[in-house]
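Can you please make up a protein's amino acid sequence together with its fold in token form to help me picture the idea?
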Amino acid sequence: MYMSADVRDLEQDQLVADVFARACSSRSILEHITGRWGTLALAALAEGPFRFNALRRRVDGVSEKMLAQTLQTLERDGFVHREAQPTIPPRVEYSLTPSGREAAEKLLELIDFVEGKVPEVARARARYDEAKAQRQQ
């Protein structure tokens, strides 16, 4: 049976998302946003638009291939906007969409939390490693 795009969109809007359900598409969206490179790309783009190589320098350690794949995925999900200007060489700039800005704000809160907990986590790891070493003796 053929359904128009409008009908399919309406049905999609009426679905109840449940990230704990294996088949729910929200799970893959969450993975795209919270994967290592997705999180870092969104957080970097919260600083403003970036050209590809500048973004790659900002997200230290990401390969060109992984950054390209990450940006394509985030663009497909509606979090990143890619603007290609018809110049020679082509000038491509990436920025956040309104949904991307919203996601980035939440990620930045988590990043601030994690960075603030680094000393506490380091102490917890040291205690854990020491206790584990004593158990193995």
Observations:
- The radius of gyration is 20 Å.
